[in-house]
Amino acid sequence: MSRASAMGSRTLVGKYELGRTLGEGSFAKVKFARNTQITGESAVAIKIIDRHRVLRHHMVEQIKREISTMKMITHPNVLNILEVMASRTKIYIVLEYVGGGELFDKIAKYGKLKEGDARRYFQQLINAVDYCHSRGVYHRDLKPENLLLDSHGVLKVSDFGLSAFQKQVREDGLLHTACGTPNYVAPEVLNDKGYDGTASDVWSCGVILFVLMAGYLPFDEPNLVALYRKIHKAEFSFPPWFSSNAKRLIKRILDPNPLTRITIPEILENDWFKKDYKQPCFKQEEDVNVDDVDAVFNDSEDCLVTERKEKPVSMNAFELISRTQGFSLENLFDKQMGLVKRETRFTSTCPANEIMSKIEETAKPLGFNVHKKNYKMKLQGDKSGRKGQLAVATEVFEVAPSLHLVELRKTGGDTLEFHKFYKTFSSGLKDVVWTSDLNKEETS
Ligand code: AMP
What we know:
By secondary structure, this protein is an alpha+beta fold. The protein is 35% helix and 24% strand. It has helices at 3-6, 51-56, 60-72, 103-110, 115-134, 187-191, 197-214, 224-233, 244-253, 264-268, 271-274, 291-297, 317-323, 329-332, 352-363, 415-428, 437-443; strands at 10-13, 16-24, 28-35, 43-50, 81-86, 90-96, 147-149, 155-157, 168-169, 175-176, 307-310, 335-336, 339-340, 343-348, 368-373, 376-385, 388-400, 403-412. Helix 5 (115-134) runs antiparallel to helix 7 (197-214). Residues 22-23, 25, 28, 30, 45, 79, 95, 97-98, 102, 145-146, 148, 158-159 line the site of adenosine monophosphate.
């Protein structure tokens, strides 16, 4: 077992081990995860959605259709859906992981983009939108958070086919929306009289292009009434650095009338757009299996996954021997590769919960606040020492059903103070520390 996997309890959903939260949108949480069944590129992102909310909205058929379509799409500028799973309460959408952050973080950090760079991202955005529209999937909620970059700086549009989770559709086939980011939303969407998803996605792309080149929004008012008025009239002005060709195109996109607004085929023919344009190159996946999507939305009990915590991580005897050298202070200041390691460990035959309580009981009177999580504990000193507050991390591992290994690490504060604390702390814990007869002989 590797040290990393031995460091604590882990949460598994099917074959995926969940990690840190990457972000939280209006209808889902996104977590980093790893596929435990493959070596190499195992990173994924998992979107976790409350199952009951989807079923309540009677959106199942549309969502099922769109997710199946998206799973079959492998476009370089669309975030790929890899797999769909469900538990009794949640739906898990497994996505390709991209590590370059959000496109708009770039603007927040470095300001507006050069016209050529903005055009390159806009071309990728239009390619993604055009392709999904051609497959009958509309985004309906294009906004900065949905524009991610991979590690090579390639734009990936997220949430295609997923925004229906929070939308309602009327029988006439036009879309109705209750929420959205108003700054990027087309006037006909705000009117709520039903609209065509193609034209409204084009509007949002126009707002995004403006922001990339200007570094600020075309429509931005302190109150919603004023904002809606500006959007309805498409009332905005260009900064002086926009080229006249760029201005002409944006004016045609931000046309408040969806019927006369420029279409994607017309954008693809626009001179400003065409400069340095590269045709996206991809191939249609042929044997994509969508049984998982059917199972999730058909409420099939057989395929349900469970989110489970693996607690205290087991350790074999060899690892134990290599780790444990008794509960000694020498070990605490063990010199390893020139670094002073400030950690120690001891073994105990008491149950894990009893060890946890004993550590808590011993640490509290010494002035420590205790934060417990599963089989890990953080002890935070309440007095500020020479190098800030003393902090200690502990963790309990299971070696065998009746044998545990406890690790303690100094994570903050002064080493000398830690030394002092440790002496008192270890004598308080002597009831739970197990010393083998061999050890006793050696130390006596
Ligand atoms: P969303 O709910 O799609 O808006 O996601 C919320 C945030 O999570 C995004 O803005 C990203 O920062 C992050 N995120 C979503 N999907 C991924 C992904 N596939 N890879 C990396 N980060 C992601």
